Amino acid sequence: MLIDLNSDLGEAADAEQERLESLIFPFVSSVNVACGEHAGNPDLMRRTVQRAREHGLSVGAHPGFPDREHKGRRDLGLTLAQIETLVASQIGSLARIAALEQVTLTHVKPHGALYGRSARERSVAEAIVRAVRAVDPHLIIVGLASSPLIQAARDAGLGAAEEAFVDRAYEHDGLLVSREIAGSVMMNEEDVLRRVEQLVRDKVVVARTGVRFTVRLDTVCVHSDTPGADRLVALIRSRLESLGVTVAPLQRRSGV
To answer: Half-sphere exposure of residue 148, counting CA atoms within 13 Å on the CB side?
Structure first.
């Protein structure tokens, strides 16, 4: 079984946070790089791409709302046209910087509140898909498993990778629990590893209400800003491999 292990990187606000991020690269297979709006800047984007190249990882754009104060996790209520422009411009910015490191982008994964809206609203999902297709139709779109974003990408003939989270709590409907609710971020190592086993062995997630639902899975995410993420990602990688999983990066599409 092949599964990608991804993390959202290039979001560090200072040297210490960047050092902690650097500890994650050896264990993941794909990175989603902040594109300078919700976090990051051109120099950090380039350093992140460079580290990913050195570790042989797939590199994707991680566009988010321009709201650094709330780390892109507040919905700004942008129009669909504004979302298209925002996503297209951020992909383009990272693609140009990645070219300096002879790296071609593989995928696009929305960040924070934009990701949340794409998981709930078909119109937002379609706006993101239009932006990706306009910039580079060979990019894979990463979205919440079984979400409108996955379906919109496939309906448009684009590649889609269904994502599950090992460090986030779920609601019974398959959406992520709001970060404003206590327990929305899973930090207990045993809970996280239990989630990994449920995903791989049973293809299920247990919601915070106890409801179990089936999840299709191409890639799993661990957030770089989850406390102890550097240790957690090593444990996750080890557990995946012990379950017979080959951790492999997302592959850029050769055609549409």
So the answer is: 16
Secondary structure class of 92 (helix, strand, coil): helix
Rg (CA), the chain: 17
Is the pLDDT reported for residue 193 higher than 90? yes
Look up the CATH number of the domain holding residue 14. 3.20.20.370
pLDDT in tens, 228-249: 899 999 999 999 999 999 999 9
Q: Does 144 map to a domain?
A: yes
Q: What residue numbers bound the domain in which 69 lies?
A: 2-247
Q: Is residue 256 part of a domain?
A: no
Q: Based on the structure, what is the number of domains in the chain?
A: 1
With a pLDDT cut of 70, the percent of the chain lying above it is 99
With respect to residue 255, please indicate whether it lies within any of the assigned structural domains: no
pLDDT digits 0-9 by tens, 74-112: 999 999 999 999 999 999 999 999 999 999 999 999 999
pTM beyond cutoff 0.85? yes
Quick one: DSSP state of residue 218?
S
Q: Please state, in angstroms and as integers, the Cα–Cα distance from residue 104 to each residue in 52, 98, 198, 255, following that order.
A: 12, 7, 33, 15
The answer to whether 221 and 7 are in contact (CB under 8 A) is yes
Question: Which run of H or E residues covers position 212?
Answer: strand 212-214
Beta strands in 91-139 (DSSP E): 107-108
